[in-house]
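Model the whole thing, not chain by chain.
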Amino acid sequence: MLQITNLHVRLKDGREILKGIDLTVAAGEVHAIMGPNGSGKSTLAAVLAGRDGYEITEGSVTYQGRDLLAMPADERAREGVFLAFQYPVEIPGVNNMYFLRAALNAGRRHRGEPELDAGQFLRAVRGKLKLLEISEDLMQRAVNVGFSGGEKKRNEIFQMAMLEPRLAILDETDSGLDIDALRLVARGVNELRAPDRAIVLITHYQRLLDYVEPDRVHVLQGGRIVESGDKSLAAELERRGYGAADAA
Amino acid sequence: MSAVVDFPVKPEARPYLEAFAESASEPDWLARFRKQGLDRFARQGFPSRRSENWRYLDLQPLEKQPLLPATAGPFAAAPELELTSAWVRLFIVDGTCRSAVFRDLPEGIWIGSMERAIRERPDLVRSAATSDNSAERPFAALNAALFADGFVLDFGPGVVLDRPIEIAHLASNPGASHTRSLINLGAGSRATVIENYTGAGRAGRYWRNDVASWRIGDGASLTRIALIEESADAVHLGEVTATLGTGAKLDAFALLLGGGTVRHEASVTLAGDHAQCRYDGAFVVSGREEANIVTNIDHAAVGGTTSELIKGVAAGSGHGAFQGKIIVREGAQRTDAKQTSRNLILGRRASIDTKPELEILADDVKCAHGASVGDLDEAALFYLRARGIPTDEAHRLLVEGFLREPVEGVADAAIRDHLLGRLSARLARLEQWT
């Protein structure tokens, strides 16, 4: 599904953030990428999603056999890459439902499927809203405007559920959530687990992994993956902290 | 027959003087009114860019090649708005009222062409005409001299019509159309008027000079929407003068979506205590279009409120401007006025000027104003693209989202949906996004 090889990334100001990442995620797997603040986790997510402002100096990223880095951000999304934002953006004046239908239909057009009309779309929306316990009137507001922190995060997972990506990257979706919201987010993620789908969870804490069981856990530190293991690594990190991983 | 005058005439005014023809069939007061207007225009000529109210508009196209009143030619049918309510409609084609449709009008409403009103309601028209203070308004003066027709709407006290009255102005031939209209609302009455201004494909180069006067009586309420979608070569100059009585309410919105040179000016006087004025507007320019919104809100009495939200988008080599002046007179205590101007510039060759101005002579008032000019929010753009929305569509969504806010202030759902539809159609043919 996703193969990252020796990826080096620097910012426009020249600072090198990622210093040779190697990571392979197969279809059906859930990988957790953990690490302290400033280790490059969010940069990795942004580079995979196609945000501007980063320079790839070395390495490659292959997604479903194609060069992911050669695709513009919107094409990546239509090809099935989804990024749940750490800080979802507020967009005044753009209605949530309208926005989501535009996104869904852009993907459908891309795949040669017929677009959903307003009625079909609404039926699809209602089922997923229920799953994430999001009220319908939230959908009639402008994108993320006036949403609480928890509502914004749930809205990200709701969008993910609607768009049914092949590769979902969740950038610290668990941060700032209370335990109820965390459970809902986990429910949304678990619901999406499928043999033809890969999920990358980027997180600072082990908390989310109590609810979403990863197949692999990686520790990102100083722009490199310094340690990988199975789910028990997360619990171990929680015990000993990232400082010890550095030494390992 | 051309007018003979014995004072210096501005050169750009001369062709218009020569085109002026007295009509023997008009009443004396109207003939005098026309002559006074012509004299004023002849002395003043076109406003220069040094004139504060006109500094952002380039009138060169009109000065270099005068546009005289359109000679009658074949005219096209006015396009219908998609308003489903059984409306009241007037068609004004090339400045002349051609047809009218009225369905189930309640008692106490007089509506008809200006030409008919001059015959049937001379006192009403005359009182509005003589109070016309166009000393500093050369195009209103020229309009007084040359207007052919327009409309008059008169509501008796307490008359309420919830259905919108639709006035369709259509240009179907080259030349100038000088139209004049009057809305007179008796105490406690209520009306909603939507005027749309369009040009038929073959109209070519035309000039619309539209002058309106609104008198909103005590406790009366006027909602007025202007939708301006002129042809690419058109010059549209519109001037409104409104007076609000005690507790009167004006709710106005102007949407400027097309025309080579478009100017919408409103001068509102809150003459009675506790009057309320909302004046919102939006413009979109691209290509080499120019659009100006100019408002002068004059608080002359106690406890009045004003709220203005003007949003502008400029793309291509388009130029837009907003000039908004709010005056709070000495006695106008407890005035509450707020004015907001927000603008988006798409592309390096587009430009927007914004000039808010407050003149406060009373001491117990609340006034706020803010203005901004910027470009599209990169974070929002990436968010939309990260959901698969193609870049062009993402741009359009953001621009539309930006402009929706003032449109959503329109209370009538059918009109609002119509305006949003026209806005989407306009943005779909914005030739340059960044």
